[in-house]
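Bumping with the actual sequence this time:
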Amino acid sequence: MALRVHSGAVEPLREGPTPPSAQVVVVGGGVMGLAAADELARAGADVLLLERDRLGRGSSAKPFGGVRGTFSDPGNIALGLRGLERYAALHEAVPGGIGLARVGYLFCARTHGQALAVEASTALQRSMGAEVDVVSPARAAELNPHLDPSALVAASFSPRDGYAEPGRVVAAWAASAAERGARVVEGAEVTGVEVHDDGAGARVTAVRYRAGGPGGPECEVRCEHLVVATGAWSARVGALAGVDLPVEPVRRQIAFADAPGGARGSVGAGGRPLPFTLDLSTTFYVHGSPDGLLLGISDPAQAPGFGRDYDDSWVAAFDAAAAEVAPGLVGLPLRRGWAGLYENTPDHNALIGASREVAGLVYATGFSGHGFLQAPAVGEVVRDLVLGREPLVDVAPFSAERFAPRSAAPLLQEVHII
């Protein structure tokens, strides 16, 4: 189904044939694909976006997405800071905003080794323009009174970080892309990628997809460029073109709970909202929101897979972690829980680049939990890679080639991974 998007609403376009060709086919209608489609359309490219389900129903289907520049790798910092800048502008430009809340990020270090790593990453972030400081355990407990300061060695606090609402961002980018001439097609599952080798090397020439879901007619669109932005499903789409994208889906579960002590439990120092608080030792996290406390953890017992059914299997891991760092949060009655997919790579950092094996194929995937916050910047990077421009960030460290057999490229070493 082709779509028109305006004022945050999505409605069908008048019936009409899918174009037989497009300069760029973007596969994936989450925040990453829509950011790329919008940037390409703004640059005057002829863009067709294909989404197998509904826009924003994959990994972007969640009420809050963290936005931060708090990383230890220079590339991640640059992408995060640019994302913060672009999200602030989008929040001001869209009627009603995108739910941007600058509650801050509080990363908790509970070992001396972690504290040293946080100090080093904080210095690097500050040198690149971030507003962030190392704070004492006592100050961390002022910012988030649920924390036990005796469990901490240090923490970093970045007040301009926070969260936004992916649903509003999806609607805004879809509207912008459509207004600039991009065509967006839902219910379009990619079934094949045509790659032609004329002796000078392999190149993408067409994309095949099934229209309207299972049993629908097969369609083909000729193209010069293919952008793979399909998140947890990217390994399959890459394989259709003969490109290895080592992305593994892993279920993540989170839930809301009422704060102990009522509303007073959802505020910190000076009455400001609780920051997005993360424990580097256990990946436990919590932050305040208009709906109460949002709780989550990277459950070490969770096996990889595409399942997105919610259950309470993660709660034991959360409670065990909370007992160490925030004992008052153990055993909270949970409500409105849900599950989504992380798109993990072996080093839990993104895959961004232009394929060396297949000309015309650009990938932006495997963000391992960082996709929403990096999407505005990566949309610009994808635009530049497609159009042959120099991107704002050197994407060589993010190349999928770093995982190739016998590759000498180093893996990314990122401290601030949850």
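The tokens above came from a reply further down the thread. Residues 3-60+167-246+347-403 form a domain with the FAD/NAD(P)-binding domain fold (CATH 3.50.50.60).
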